[in-house]
Design the sequence.
């Protein structure tokens, strides 16, 4: 199946088929002295967009790394598509705060890098057309030969999105992917992210510090307590899709923001 065939998927809402399941996941560092995460249960359904928001150091990145198979949990199970996650997998895509493109490789060469690492140079070359199609999808058509130093921060993050999508992951794990961008670029990229997720029927899980960002993008927002992180509330966001930035001025949007803020403030004084 090509990238473009995957884009014509049926949009499955938050009540769709469960794809990702976490049961009783905990993580302890430093021989148990640092309890980063405690008893996290989570189900992500196909095509849903969920966010986690919580204070700095509460264990969000740890959670994402466990979900991606980069770090083993101290307790509990992580299952994706019925199979336990025991290491990195082809069906999981991950994106971090910084784009981390290799400066000596062109944009196109950066995008096909995961294929090159996994399957070798010839397979990566065979993916060039797909990489170009992805560049078009994120609005970077014509930039395949540009070097990372010639891209703006937002453009570099778009290239990083392409690099994440080239392996056709079913699940996208996003750790504050646009937090290094200015507010305008960030709003724009969030709407782009929504479009890409909807077009590809991707299941997405986003870590963010921004309450409005969580609300505008998500079907469900999970609020995390201070460390050891656990979910203290799951808020279903009942706003129609596709979402647009002007929804941020609606009273309903404001009431979601207020509710999440109150929950976070409660945690701050625990
Ligand atoms: N490899 C590690 N070894 C020891 N402690 C760690 C390690 N990684 C994270 N921690 C600790 O676990 C806790 C959670 O860290 P984590 O990076 O998951 O937080 P976070 O919620 O992503 O924070 P932020 O919002 O600042 O990104 C912190 O107290 C951190 O110091
Ligand atoms: Mg983090």
Sequence:
């Amino acid at each position: 199946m090509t990238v473009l065939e995957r884009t014509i998927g049926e949009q499955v809402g938050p009540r769709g088929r469960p794809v990702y399941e976490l049961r009783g996941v905990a993580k302890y560092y430093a021989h148990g002295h640092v309890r980063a995460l405690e008893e996290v249960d989570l189900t992500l359904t196909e095509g849903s967009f969920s966010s986690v928001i919580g204070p700095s150091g509460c264990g969000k990145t740890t959670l994402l790394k466990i979900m991606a198979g980069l770090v083993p949990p101290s307790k509990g199970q992580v299952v994706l598509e019925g199979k336990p996650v025991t290491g990195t997998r082809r069906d999981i895509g991950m994106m971090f705060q910084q784009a981390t493109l290799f400066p000596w490789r062109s944009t196109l060469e950066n995008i096909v890098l995961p294929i090159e690492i996994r399957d070798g140079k010839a397979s990566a070359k065979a993916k060039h057309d797909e990489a170009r199609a992805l560049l078009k999808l994120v609005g970077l058509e014509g930039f395949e030969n540009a070097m990372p130093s010639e891209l703006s921060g937002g453009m570099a993050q778009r290239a990083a999105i392409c690099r994440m999508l080239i392996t056709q992951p079913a699940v996208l794990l996003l750790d504050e992917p646009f937090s290094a961008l200015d507010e305008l670029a960030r709003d724009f990229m969030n709407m782009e992210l929504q479009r890409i997720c909807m077009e590809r029927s991707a299941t997405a899980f986003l870590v963010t510090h921004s309450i409005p960002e969580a609300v505008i993008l998500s079907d469900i927002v999970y609020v995390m307590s201070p460390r050891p992180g656990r979910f203290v509330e799951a808020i279903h966001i009942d706003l129609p899709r596709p979402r647009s930035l002007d929804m941020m001025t609606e009273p309903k949007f404001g009431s979601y923001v207020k509710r999440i803020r109150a929950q976070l403030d409660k945690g701050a004084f625990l």
Notes: The longest strand covers residues 18-29. Strands lie at 18-29, 34-45, 49-53, 75-80, 83-84, 92-95, 171-175, 203-208, 220-224, 231-236. The chain has one domain: 3-100+171-268.
